[in-house]
Design brief:
The chain is an alpha/beta fold and 258 residues long. The protein is 42% helix and 19% strand.
Amino acid sequence: MVKRVLLIGSPKSFMVNAIARGLQNENYEVIQCEFTAAAIDSVEDKPPLYVLYLGDLNFDDAEMSGLSALKYLDEAIDREHFFLYEVGNNDELSYAEKFLSKIKVTETYQRPIDVKMLAEDLDMAVESNKMGDDQKKKILVVDDDGTMLRMIRTWLSVKYRVYMASSGKIALTFLQNNKVDLVLLDYMMPQMDGPEVLKQIRMDDNMKELPVMFLTSKSDKESVITVAALRPEKYLLKTMPKAKLIHAIDEFFFGPYA
């Protein structure tokens, strides 16, 4: 992936132009367009990285509210699979979330933004995508909550190749035919819960050494003790911050200085 980014926001905005200059200083080719569906759609040869600046929203003006653009992005990201980075204050980010699903956004930033930090995050996506899919570590996420599945996929897909399974049975069938480097496993699922899935994995000679981490909302001591004998790599909570979760996975693969 080359260092190209689509910056969405008013070209007349001081902050939009400041972001553009900052990214250019970090050797990015910056393509700019207005915050409208028509303007975004008209961009030819779109890059795989989008930065959306929400600071110029006018909630009292239908044309300036960005409504059409947000709805457009919500649909386009499923077709085009770009990485989307949002910049705004709490009110603007909350407004955007009504029309552009939070689980589809790679990262959000409070404004005023540190452009160097933004560039570092974009660099991570660029470097990761220089690798072919076969070179990336493969993670299977198992959860009956579709929203959680899509959110974790969005968070991890910058660095990893992510597969999803909505039940324990689907996960086990997938693992019989596909090799992965890590399984992120929910605890509470209908029909076959997480501990039972892990028992089945440990009983299979071809999978018994497969690394598994629980990612669950169950934080009680009894639940942790129940699965301890099955040797999960970690027991992670869904309530942990995004950065901490990603760090735990990076640390598992690449060591404590990841």
